[in-house]
Amino acid sequence: MGEEKTELKPATVQKTIPVEYDTGNLAVYDPAPLDATKISDASAKESYLKSITRDNVQLLINQVLSLPLTNKKIDEQTNMTLVELPEPIYQLPREKSLPKEKEKTKWEKFAEKKGISKKEKRSRKVYDEASGEWVNRWGYKGKNKDMDDQWLVEVDDQAKTTDDGEDIDPRKLNRMERKKLVKKNMLQQKRNRLNGDADKE
Amino acid sequence: MIRTVKPKNARSKRALDKKQPKIVENVKTALFVPGQTTNQALHDICIDFASLKEPYQKRLHKKNKILPFEDASSLEFFSEKNDTSIIVLSTSNKKRPNNLTFVRMFNYTVYDMVEMQVMGNFKLLKDFKTRAFQVGLKPMFTFQGQIFDTVPVFKQVKSFFLDMFRGEVTNLLDVAGLQWVISISAVEEDENNESVSKFPLVHFRVYKLVTYHSPEPKLPRVELVETGPRLDFKIGRYQLASAEAQKEAFKIPPQLRRKTKKNVETDMLGDKVATIHVGKQDLSRLQTRKMKGLKSRYDQHPEEEPADVIEEEEDGQEKKRQKLE
């Protein structure tokens, strides 16, 4: 390269008016006024802008390289040396306003008032002793559906009957109860949603 | 507002969740909208801008009859539809030739707008022979001129270009990724200028970095090669952000707010100064009697008769000796 034969130019820049660094944004703000005559002269303009930018970039690069370094392991052989950037100084507007906090449900409000702490999360799987496997507690092939496809079921002494006095199939009863719970939960969800909307207004 | 229905499946739910406000926001995407009167030059400039903004950009291809300063509702629609917060609208007419309107959105409504007319001496990416840099690298910025800190429109221009091209905010940076720089400069406002717009031109330049060895250890010497686009803008109409929107948009989420350390200050010279509060020292338990003669039993109390104490002590020692014998 021709550059190496000639004398090495210095990598430092002297400025009369100090520039402002914003390394978090990788930006440098140079408050020194530009030479208006050079800018208006078409032949000198480009080289002038370039030389000023070069000086500022050199200053920024020097500033970035003086920041603390960290090593980040990518895989076993390669290690990357990264520069730790500070937080940006120049703040920019957000795109959307801050996320709103989720509205508390009726139960959550009640629990807070009474000081009831949250239950530990129940596992989704449950041990099925008959097959010796872990099966879903609910959902597809859920444990709560065991009753549905039994070929033989015990009937309680005080078995529930319909209004006509007929026995209700306990398999059906089990399913009905499950569906009722689902419906109740849907209603609660809806109520909570409506309450949340009402609170906002 | 676009009507949204409750998502019926997981995929659409994920897509909707992506649009929700976040604590740490995604990179702002830019949407390039050709206006009714756009021309070939603006089309090419928009392609160049889009390639600098890659991959966070989208370009519309059909012309749209939009007058942003009269009615920005279609821009707001585009913003919500495409989930973008930067819109660049290109129009050109006799009064405002080669005009790019840079619009920023906040919550899908117009935050601020500025019109910039591209002067005739522009050059595109393809007019430069140098090879472009890798896609998606963070650029460096240099702003030349005091005007970017003093005049509101220029502040807006500075904020806009930073917002548009800054990319992801990271705290770790690979030095090898520093490959290109966006240089934006403007001369100072000329009070004597009698023309319609006294604002100076904004010079937008993009350079690629070339580094060489230098005599200083560990510091490279930087040279620049222009890669384009080279654009000179004349500022036209503008609309600044309202105080309300600004207040809302500059809120910092409490989760990200840095806690100020107590009793740590930086003094005038930039040195870190800390006040340390040491608890009150309990001197009553200080161990000072390291010698036999200083033990508490040899203390001399003026009320008591010291001689007796010593005698008693001696008696005790004698008894001990007797036992040992």
Cα radius of gyration of chain B in angstroms? 36 Å
CATH architecture assignment of the domain at 25-238 in chain B: 3-Layer(aba) Sandwich
Q: What is the helix tally of chain B?
A: 7
Q: What is the helix fraction of residues of chain B, given as a range?
A: 10-25%
Distance from N terminus to C terminus of chain B (CA atoms, Å) equals: 106 Å
The computed structural class of chain B is alpha+beta
**Assembly level:** heterodimer
Low-confidence stretches of chain B: none
The backbone outline of chain B, from C-alpha atoms, is elongated
Q: What is the succession of H and E elements of chain A?
A: HEEHHEEHEEH
Q: By helix and strand content of chain A, what is the structural category?
A: alpha+beta
CATH class of the domain at 25-238 in chain B: Alpha Beta
What is the largest interface, and how many residues per chain? A-B, 58 and 73 residues
Quote the beta fraction of chain B. Answer: 15-25%
**Major sheet: arrangement of strands of chain A:** 1-2
Helical percentage of chain A:
25-40%
The 3D shape of chain A can be described as elongated
Element pattern of chain B in H and E: HEHEHEEEEHHEEEEEHEEH
Region (Disordered) (chain B): 284-325
GO cellular component, one term (chain B): nucleolus
Organism (chain B): Dekkera bruxellensis (Brettanomyces custersii)
Protein name (chain B): Ribosome production factor 2 homolog
Q: Would you kindly provide a written description of the structure presented here, covering whatever features stand out?
A:
The complex is a heterodimer of chains A (201) and B (325). Chain A is α+β, with helices and mostly antiparallel strands. Among the domains of chain A are: 9-69, no CATH class; 123-192, no CATH class. Helices cover 36% and strands 13% of the residues of chain A. Chain A has five helices and six strands. In chain A, strands 1-2 form a two-stranded antiparallel sheet. A two-stranded antiparallel ribbon of chain A has the order 3-4. The two termini of chain A are 71 Å apart. In chain B, the strands form two sheets. In chain B, strands 1, 2, 3, 4, 5, 6, 8, 9, 10 and 11 form a ten-stranded mixed sheet that branches. Chain B has a two-stranded antiparallel ribbon with strand order 12-13. Chain B is 24% helix and 24% strand. Chain B is built from seven helices and 13 strands. Chain B has 325 residues and is α+β, with helices and mostly antiparallel strands. Chain B has a domain at 25-238: Rossmann fold (3-Layer(aba) Sandwich). At the A-B interface, strand 2, helix 3 and strand 4 of A face strand 4, strand 6, helix 5, strand 7 and strand 8 of B. Chain A: This is Ribosome biogenesis regulatory protein. Chain A: Involved in ribosomal large subunit assembly. Chain A: Keywords: Nucleus, Ribosome biogenesis. Chain A: Its main location: nucleus. Chain A: One of its GO terms (biological process) is ribosome biogenesis.
